[in-house]
Amino acid sequence: MATNFLVHEKIWFDKFKYDDAERKFYEQMNGPVASSSGQENGASVILRDIARARENIQKSLAGLQAVLPSPPEAPSQAAQGTSSGASSGPGGDHSELIVRMASLEVENQSLRRVVQDLQQAFSKLEARLSTLERSSPTHRATAPQTQHVSPMRQVEPPAQKVATPAEDDEDNDIDLFGSDEEEDKEAARLREERLRQYTEKKTKKPTLVAKSSILLDVKPWDDETDMAQLETCVRSIQLDGLTWGGSKLVPVGYGIRKLQIQCVVEDDKVGTDLLEEEVTKFQEHVQSMDIAAFNKI
After folding, report:
1. N or C end of the chain: which has fewer CB within 10 A?
2. How far apart are CA 24 and CA 88, in angstroms?
């Protein structure tokens, strides 16, 4: 029964939408403030909640006024209560409304305190912004500097010196082209001297020679081959850019051993094909030759 009066009330549920539209309209008319846009958005939400609370209080008061001053409704409510057999009466509804009104009053007071605190914070921020705007150098009026222009003075042309006959003779004796020829000769001599020094330095500079280290495997015909004579034959090969190194005998199997010998060759002068051709010439002792390792130096 306490909420039946709300059926006949006209409640404006979208009031906050119209409040936002009105605020935006006045902002467009007066221009938005960039520094306090976020604060205004927070304040608008709080103010909207306050407006809703006030509306709820006004509705409760209106409902209470609509219920209390109507005495003929009491018998009808009592009759309805007796007919329906309900234990609750109008006193319970009034107590519920009083409790609700007390809670709304407390909430209203707390919201007023919040609004007062926000207003104080906004006033402090506005004072701070005003002081910052006054102290900023962009808002200071700078007086234009005026340049004092001195009056124009007539410049007297320099007095022309009269040339004497002796000075004319000295000017005629000057050779304007002889100095250029001498400078050209000197520059050509310096250029030739530098080219000669560069060619001499280039010829004296040692050139890098590409070399390779090769490990050869020389295999005999059988176990009866004289390996000392085979090594002597191999070392007897003398080529330009070929240097022999250490050697050893490596067992292969069935009493047969092969000769492993190291050599260093210049890549431009000695190749592996030439080495193989020279080693395999000794057909009495050498069966074949293989390259076990090949490394650049």
Report:
1. C
2. 49
In this structure, of 76-80, 142-146, 167-171, 288-292, the range with the lowest mean pLDDT score is 76-80
CB 219 within 8 Å of CB 288: yes
Cα–Cα distance, 267 to 265 (Å, whole number): 6
- The answer to whether the beta carbons of residues 245 and 264 sit under 8 Å apart is yes
Neighbours of 214 (CB within 10 A): 19
Cα Rg, the chain, nearest whole Å: 59
Residue 44 CA, chain-centre distance (Å), reads 39
- The reported pTM is 0.33
Residue-wise pLDDT tens digits, 12-57: 777 788 888 888 888 888 765 544 555 556 667 777 888 888 887 8
Three-state DSSP state, 219: strand
Record the tokens describing residue 200, joined without a space.
């001499």
CA distance 249 to 227: 8
Q: Using CA atoms, how far apart are residues 194 and 198, in angstroms rounded to an integer?
A: 6
The helix/strand/coil state of 248 is strand
* Residue environment code for 157-193, b if the CB has 16+ CB neighbours within 10 A, otherwise e: eeeeeeeeeeeeeeeeeeeeeeeeeeeeeeeeeeeee
Tell me how far apart the alpha carbons of residues 139 and 132 are, in angstroms, rounded to a whole number. Answer: 10
Q: Contact 223/255 with Cβ under 8 angstroms?
A: yes
Extract long-range pairs of 122-129: CB within 8 Å, 24+ residues apart: 122/36, 122/39, 122/43, 125/36, 125/39, 129/35, 129/36
Distance CA 60, CA 244 (A): 118
Q: Is the dihedral of CA 219, 221, 226, 232 positive or negative?
A: negative
